[in-house]
Hints:
Radius of gyration of chain A: 12 Å
Low-confidence stretches of chain A: none
Oligomer: heterooctamer
Strand order of the largest sheet of chain E: 5-4-3-10-9
Structural class of chain E: alpha/beta
Mean pLDDT of chain A: 93
Order of helices and strands of chain A: EEHEEE
Distance between the termini of chain A: 41 Å
Largest sheet of chain A: 5 strands, mixed
Largest interface: E-F, 80 and 80 residues
Number of helices of chain E: 9
Shape of chain A: globular
Strand content of chain A: 35-45%
Strand content of chain E: 15-25%
Low-confidence stretches of chain E: none
Structural class of chain A: mainly beta
Helix content of chain E: 25-40%
Strand order of the largest sheet of chain A: 2-1-5-3-4
Number of helices of chain A: 1
Amino acid sequence: MIQVSVNSDMKQVDEMLPLSELLSGWGFDCQRVAVAINEDFVPRSAYSATRLRDNDRVDVVAPVQGG
Amino acid sequence: MIQVSVNSDMKQVDEMLPLSELLSGWGFDCQRVAVAINEDFVPRSAYSATRLRDNDRVDVVAPVQGG
Amino acid sequence: MIQVSVNSDMKQVDEMLPLSELLSGWGFDCQRVAVAINEDFVPRSAYSATRLRDNDRVDVVAPVQGG
Amino acid sequence: MIQVSVNSDMKQVDEMLPLSELLSGWGFDCQRVAVAINEDFVPRSAYSATRLRDNDRVDVVAPVQGG
Amino acid sequence: MTDNWTLYGSTFNSRLLIGSALYPSPQVMSDAITASGSEIVTVSLRRQAPEEAGGQSLWTHIQQLNKTLLPNTAGCHSVKEALTLAQMSREMFETDWIKLEVIGDDYNLQPDPIATVEAAEQLVKQGFKVFPYCTDDLVVCQRLLSVGCEVLMPWGSPIGTGRGLMNPYNLQTIRERLPDTPLIIDAGIGKPSHAVMALELGYDGVLLNTAVAQASEPVLMAEGFRHALLAGRSAYLAGAMPERQTASPSTPTLGMPFWHQS
Amino acid sequence: MTDNWTLYGSTFNSRLLIGSALYPSPQVMSDAITASGSEIVTVSLRRQAPEEAGGQSLWTHIQQLNKTLLPNTAGCHSVKEALTLAQMSREMFETDWIKLEVIGDDYNLQPDPIATVEAAEQLVKQGFKVFPYCTDDLVVCQRLLSVGCEVLMPWGSPIGTGRGLMNPYNLQTIRERLPDTPLIIDAGIGKPSHAVMALELGYDGVLLNTAVAQASEPVLMAEGFRHALLAGRSAYLAGAMPERQTASPSTPTLGMPFWHQS
Amino acid sequence: MTDNWTLYGSTFNSRLLIGSALYPSPQVMSDAITASGSEIVTVSLRRQAPEEAGGQSLWTHIQQLNKTLLPNTAGCHSVKEALTLAQMSREMFETDWIKLEVIGDDYNLQPDPIATVEAAEQLVKQGFKVFPYCTDDLVVCQRLLSVGCEVLMPWGSPIGTGRGLMNPYNLQTIRERLPDTPLIIDAGIGKPSHAVMALELGYDGVLLNTAVAQASEPVLMAEGFRHALLAGRSAYLAGAMPERQTASPSTPTLGMPFWHQS
Amino acid sequence: MTDNWTLYGSTFNSRLLIGSALYPSPQVMSDAITASGSEIVTVSLRRQAPEEAGGQSLWTHIQQLNKTLLPNTAGCHSVKEALTLAQMSREMFETDWIKLEVIGDDYNLQPDPIATVEAAEQLVKQGFKVFPYCTDDLVVCQRLLSVGCEVLMPWGSPIGTGRGLMNPYNLQTIRERLPDTPLIIDAGIGKPSHAVMALELGYDGVLLNTAVAQASEPVLMAEGFRHALLAGRSAYLAGAMPERQTASPSTPTLGMPFWHQS
């Protein structure tokens, strides 16, 4: 188990699981969010091949109003 | 004969003639002009009863563009 | 006795007394004030010959700051 | 002999002569001007050790009014 | 949005009053006035040489527009001249509406406040419905109301300068102090933005002529002013945001990514 | 008058770009955007809590408007943040358009001119079509063009202040020096008159949000801005009269009655 | 630079007329008036309660300054009130100078143009030297001259607002049309820059009170205004450069180094 | 009032920095600079033809004034040019002060914000005391401080236009955000009132040239600016009254005569 921050919340995760499974596990709909790890963009196509490392900072964003 | 000014032009006129005849004589269409004598308004209805006096100043105006 | 207003205060006064005595009586220094009765100016020279009438409105003013 | 531009004037000079002599030769008072060669500043102390090369661009400036 | 207004008992939809002078041609005048959407057109009276038909042809164009006419007393310098010209206008144009102008100075063509009040008083007594051209002087405006004017037309800036609203503070004061009087900015409007500002201030309408007639393309400019009056009126009714001293973001700051407790 | 304009190869009729934030409700937002006539709506990305559906509902409303989306990088303070958020936006909104904002100061929320140029350069290399939010600095505008921006969005005044065009001189200079670049005033617009002024200056469009969303009646204000952009554009194309120093009459002076040689 | 000016035959060096009201204390008033360099001080008359000595003490301070006094009719709302108060002032202050104020509206405290002209006419007939407080209306100014005023005092903006010169265009028009009349800006001056602008426009002097009396440090502000009037007057006499549309370098461009034919 | 200020460790009394160009004659230049009270004079370097003595004579006049010299890099368009000209100036004028100008556009002669920051950084490393000519961009100002500038010189408006303070809002923002940095308005000042406004905003000084040199009477205008800077500084220190929306009387209303209960 490693520790990562997801939108600034600390979470324990299994470093073996791919990002795609982690996102679903956290309750995100992969088609409706975009992701960055440590401020680097991660394209949706790479979720299944991406694995987190200890202390990774994950941002999961969705569309909102803007000016 | 008396002398009057019509729109600043000097004219000799017969003091016996009513304003209505004078206007026609000068070529004005009474229905299409308004008249003042010595800066006093003369209504159309009074033309036939109005006679000029020597040195009267007559203004005959018609509609134009305005701002 | 008649009733007059002095700077909006009601006062009973003896109609026989001249304005000069009334002013002193009210505690004004004639050299340091100017007077109007019923909104008419009363020059200082006329105080001794001026007598009030019933319901006269007397203004007694002195110098103040101004803009 | 080489060719250099001095304040945009083309001049033929002897490449053996130091800058100090060239400046005097051109009529400049070394104490009253500052010099750049090919847009690089040349301090006064270096004039005697500085020699020009073919096609060098020399700027010789003096104080003027400024805003 | 239907949003009518009333001048001396007559109701109008367009808030633009437009002049009929200074156009490159009678046809352009007609097209521009039509494009402007204006329902009220200003006209005047001038001496006529019997033979001349020039004015006639323009006057024919104006009549064909079938708009409400507002005759003016432009060029009058005295109460007497204004009264007589108003009477001649009433007969000629068959209307008791009169745009009262009594010029006080030939350099800035401003109205003479004292003569204008005096003329307005007499015209009202004679049954005229007076539209006084006045400056942005609140006290003069109050006098004009007290002698019976039901509409006021303060200037934005001098006639034909196109300088817009020279003194918004005065104009706003008049609006605040006279909340129930129809107020029309007359003179000085040079661009649609000026008209929008007038209505944003709460003015009810705008009267102009040169800004359209002397534009490179009068008809297109007239259309611009038509939209300007709709824009300004909507802005006033919709209640603009207050001007703020410091910036504040529109996009939410909550949930901004890349931020982490260290 | 059909009068289209083109941004990165796409053609639009409305010259208003509008934001989707700060409205009293999603329904008011939809109605206001529709009333504004705008064809381009700005959106953003923020962190989402899995369960939350709030943003979702608003996002649904935005999608239903079926407008061209312009995602922004609002809130980013560094080149790196802006680049990453732009990439996430491209995937999420399936568009290579990006409104680039790199904030340089949290007090006036102004763009950082140096970081904005740097971010724009990299985004262009990555295939983005960049709409840079910048100040009214001509040289920064020239740099943005030189790195590949084809549209510029100088501010009128700081975001959310509603102060309008703080520096018309600078804005006019930019217009004159960059005659062929689409120029959009972004930020600071508070009233329709501000938008009209921008287009009268020759600007091609206006981007705003707070002025509509925070009006007392957003839908009516949106309609006001719709007319404002038509008014301003017509004024620009029609060629306004020059401002004059001295008055000149509109009604003819020739033939003025009551005048007599003495 | 000695540069005197003349008001009703009396010559002065300072172009500042200053009020004696609203200071934190009589001592501060005396010090501020002295620091201002002003030679003319405005005063007024109010009802006195016999016993009271308050006004007395301030009045004593004013007398000790040994300045030329300019009594006002502040607060008067009718011609009659103004005439009577003027007569009382003449007796009390032993001067035929009078600052004529006939207020027309209690909200903006503006002069009533019609009543002011009427009162001025009668006061002149009674031998007063009238300093009329008026608005920036050229025609009213001309009327005041025609009834015998030899000095005019148009407002900059309403009393006590400190808004400066609301309508420079009108003020400039008055200056150009009345080149030989001493013109003093009265009311609305809030900062030294406002006074400088007035004199740069060609105005001969400035009358103010609140701007000094209500400053955090009245004495220092008074000194600021003393310099402001000297600055503005010098600027007017020295003839300022014309404002230019485009930049032009001050440092010579000829002989710029590093430039080479390629 | 003694009120000194400090620039890079040197203390001065006058808040005016003045240029030495564009005067009708060397003598007028000397007299004007003396009359201005300025202690700091800007100078430059240009190519010299050996024989010419013209510049020489002017330079002699400048030296005789015995003022602190501030050499500029006017006319430089690149970092490299500015660095070299600064080095030449340091040797020639024996000062490490340099007014840094890197022009970004030949039309408005504005500084190139990016090149100016880069040049400033290198000059500071070489031991120069940099006075950067910059626009009114807060973020660029912050960058200049971060690379080691201890004084900032934002423009009022483009060089030689005399348009004064184009964007008071931006200038005020810079003052508020950088309370401890000496701020000098450089360029655009056309009249003394502009200089007073700059100091009223809290700016520490003003640098100008054309406004004095191109006045009809430069020496008298210089004296006007001397007073202007004293006026503006006093106004700032004295704390001006707040601007008010509505009028309030200066003369007491209490005790107004002629008022009676009915």
